C-alpha cells in the first residue's frame, strides 16, 4: 500500500465553493479510481491545538501501490479538478498552481471501520 497526507489551503472567500468541489472530487475518485483504496478529505477542526488556519484541508490517501498514486496524480479526475478548481486554493508563490504540502507515510498498524466511510457533512 502507498499512503500520503496532503495539506491544501482554500482561499478565504471561496471556502464554501471549495468544500462543494472537494466533495465532488472524492465522489469522482471513488467512482473512477478503483486502486485508490482510501481518499479522506478533512477540514481543520475547532479545538485543535495549535489551531488550524481557516481553510486548511487535509487529505489522507491510500493507494494500492505507487503506480495507483501516480495514476491518480496524473489521471483525468485529479488533473481536471486542478485545472477547473485550482483557483479555489492558495497558490504556490510565483505560480498559479495550488500550494500543497505532501508527505508519504508508512502505515504501522490500524484499521478503518465500515462506518468511517460515511461522511459527516
Describe the structure.
The chain has 121 residues and is of the alpha+beta class. The chain has one domain (2-106): Alpha-Beta Plaits. Helices cover 31% and strands 24% of the residues. The chain contains three helices and four strands; from the N terminus they run βαββααβ. It has helices spanning 15-32, 66-74, 76-85; strands spanning 2-9, 36-43, 56-63, 101-105. It has a four-stranded antiparallel beta sheet with strand order 2-3-1-4. 13% of the residues are buried.
Could you give the distance between the termini? 28 Å
Please bin the fraction of helical residues.
25-40%
Determine the mean pLDDT.
92
Strand content: 15-25%
Number of strands: 4
Give the overall form: globular
State the secondary-structure class: alpha+beta
Radius of gyration (CA) equals 14 Å
Low-pLDDT residue intervals, each spanning 5 or more residues: none
Oligomeric description of these chains = single chain
Largest sheet strand order: 2-3-1-4
CATH third-tier fold name: Alpha-Beta Plaits
Question: What kind of sheet is the major sheet?
Answer: 4 strands, antiparallel
What is the H/E string?
EHEEHHE
Amino acid at each position: 500500500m502507498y499512503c500520503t497526507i496532503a495539506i491544501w489551503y482554500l482561499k478565504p472567500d471561496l471556502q464554501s465553493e471549495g468544500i462543494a468541489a472537494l466533495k465532488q472530487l472524492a465522489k469522482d475518485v471513488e467512482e473512477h479510481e478503483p486502486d485508490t483504496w482510501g481518499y479522506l478529505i478533512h477540514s481543520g477542526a475547532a479545538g485543535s491545538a495549535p489551531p488550524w488556519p481557516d481553510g486548511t484541508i487535509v487529505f489522507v490517501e491510500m493507494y494500492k501501490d505507487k503506480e495507483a498514486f501516480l495514476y491518480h496524480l496524473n489521471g483525468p479526475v485529479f488533473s481536471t479538478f486542478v485545472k477547473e478548481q485550482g483557483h479555489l486554493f492558495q497558490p504556490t508563490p510565483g505560480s498559479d498552481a495550488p500550494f500543497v504540502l505532501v508527505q508519504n507515510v508508512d502505515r504501522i498498524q490500524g484499521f478503518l471501520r465500515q462506518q468511517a466511510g460515511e461522511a459527516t457533512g
